[in-house]
Amino acid sequence: MNTPTLGFEIVSLTIETIDGKSGIDIRNIYDEINIFENIMMPCMSGNILIRDAIGLADRLNFDGSEYIRVNIIKDSKLLNADFQMSFNRRFVIYKVSNRSSITQNSERYILHFVSEEFLLSQQKKIRINFKGTHSDMVVSILKDYLGLQYTTPQIGSIQPSTGVYEWVSPNISPFEAIDYLTTRAISTDGLSDYVFWQSPIGYNFRPLSELMKENGFVNITFGAKNLPENSYDSNKSRYVSELYGARDLKIVSQFNHSENIRSGVYAGKFIGFDTLTRTIYNRKINYEDIYKLTSEHANKFSNNYKILNKEYNTSDQQYDSRITLYPFETPRANNQHLKSSNDSETTNYIDDTENYVLQRRLIFANLMQKRLKISMPGNFQYSVGMMLNLNVPKNNNIENLETGGDKTLNGKYILTSLRHVIRFDSHETLLEVATDSTNYGAN
């Protein structure tokens, strides 16, 4: 009877030419493969460390015309197909670095690769007047300028944004244009919290508030592993326990009151000016104004601890903590002179900067104040944007998990970045997670 393992099989690891008709198998000459995903980056990327004794660098130009095909199957010997996972993608090789000799007949170097759309985006500029929602503009750019369609793994999940706008792209690349739109898109909850990233299902454009509402994809465990089992079903349970059992945990950041004040997490002030209507606008914004816009968060309580200063004011009452001065156009909507003039269309498409400039900074600064890094057995089921449930042991002592573990860290987190590290005999997945709220204390 076979025991489930955490092994993997590299079905294909080949370098292909631009015509795709020929390939060179490099499964026997690589030392390490790294594959990256990040919710703040538009494209998946990676690198591979090559130990070359076959003259590969002499046979190929490595000038941007080569591709690498990565096809890896996890646990192909496991009888239950529920747990069978794979990674199969083609990337373009864009850089060679750290090339050095090992012996007289061999050398070592790193090949860097990225999704094809990244380089295509650098080769194009957008000069067009867009009208519509920000999400519609993003889809238009993906389809018309990057040649993608609504099929996996091209375009993944696109969440519609609110409001109708007009925007003239100022001769910038497609991904630069999408980044501009992402920072301005408003969700149905009224939040400026959209993110744009690539995952194995394709390119995604979604607000954090919607991602946070999803149930946790899996419970990350910190208990004992490798316990003896005597049946296939119990071996299957052991397999699942090992697959989702953390090997190591590092707290990247947990709380920084000073940085939160400077970033305007607790409170800030937006000062808008419109040169056309000669209007000055002041708006005070605090943590609760943003937090209450959606009824569902990752965890039960907010991160606003309402700390008193020596003047007996709480942090969310100090609106001078961060002041943002920015142009805005909202007064034009009701300006009778503009409506009756030949420029009446100006009043139809308003850039409402008072709704996103300061708020977006608050949202993401709050999210990134509590971050953890977790080392996991290699698992291609993980993808950035997923929600994960953590029950963290206190002081690295798993015996206290039964009594609640570390209540300051437990809860639901969003997976913000990951790295697959694949060597000849191992596959490890490194996760970085963050959360916008806590289950500790009644704030």
CA radius of gyration: 25 Å
Helicity, in percent?
10-25%
The CATH class of the largest domain is: Mainly Beta
Largest sheet, strands/sense/barrel: 13 strands, mixed
Terminal CA distance = 53 Å
What's the overall average pLDDT, rounded? 87
Low-confidence stretches: 1-5
> What is the CATH topology of the largest domain?
Thrombin, subunit H
The total strand number stands at: 23
CATH architecture of the largest domain: Beta Barrel
What shape does the CA trace take?
globular
Q: CATH superfamily membership of the largest domain, which one? A: Trypsin-like serine proteases
**DSSP helical segment count:** 10
- Overall number of structural domains: 4
Q: Assign the structural class, choosing from mainly alpha, mainly beta, alpha/beta, alpha+beta, or little secondary structure.
A: alpha+beta
